[in-house]
């Protein structure tokens, strides 16, 4: 579809986001032992436990998927500024990869919060681009 060709980087970001979710889905299940799980099957809350942090990284990614996909697609469909839509979609994916790596590899709450906030602000910006482009 020719009208979306200019949004190639944003489309790539959406595809990479889907692949990242799949990787986190698989990775979040490794290392679970019966002793380290709650009755519901999820890891017990313990940020010192990498298994718990992997689960949280996965769930954080799932929780932001809907808003990211919706605002990116809305911005593209509304004809939002190509440069900004492409840039912001890429920044979102990079910030979420950073957040997952920080979440899984460390207990560094401030860095995790910063990378979360970058992704959060990107979603807001994409939503605003979509709204203003549609009006």
Would you give an account of this structure?
- α1 (8-27) packs antiparallel against α2 (50-77) and α2 runs antiparallel to α3 (82-105).
- Helices cover 73% and strands 0% of the residues.
- The model has no long low-confidence stretch (mean pLDDT 91).
- The protein has helices at residues 8-27, 50-77, 82-105, 109-134.
- By secondary structure, the protein is an all-alpha fold.
- The chain is built from 4 helices and no strands.
- It starts with 7 loop residues before the first helix and ends with a helix.
> Helix proportion of residues, in percent?
over 70%
As residue ranges, the low-confidence spans are: none
What is the β-strand count? 0
Specify the biggest β-sheet. none
Quaternary organization = single chain
Task: Using the alpha-carbon principal axes, give the shape.
Answer: elongated
Number of helices: 4
Rounded to the nearest angstrom, the radius of gyration is 17 Å
Strand content: under 5%
């Amino acid at each position: 579809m020719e009208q979306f060709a200019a949004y190639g980087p944003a489309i790539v970001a959406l595809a990479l986001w889907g692949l990242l979710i799949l990787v986190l889905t698989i990775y979040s299940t490794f290392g679970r032992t019966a002793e380290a799980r709650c009755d519901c099957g999820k890891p017990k809350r313990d940020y010192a436990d990498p298994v718990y942090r992997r689960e949280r990284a996965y769930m954080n990614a799932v929780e932001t998927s809907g808003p990211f996909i919706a605002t990116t697609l809305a911005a593209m469909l509304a004809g939002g500024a190509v440069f900004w839509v492409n840039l912001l979609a890429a920044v979102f994916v990079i910030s979420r990869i950073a957040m997952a790596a920080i979440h899984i590899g460390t207990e560094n709450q401030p860095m995790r919060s910063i990378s979360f906030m970058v992704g959060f602000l990107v979603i807001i910006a994409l939503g605003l681009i979509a709204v203003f482009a549609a009006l």
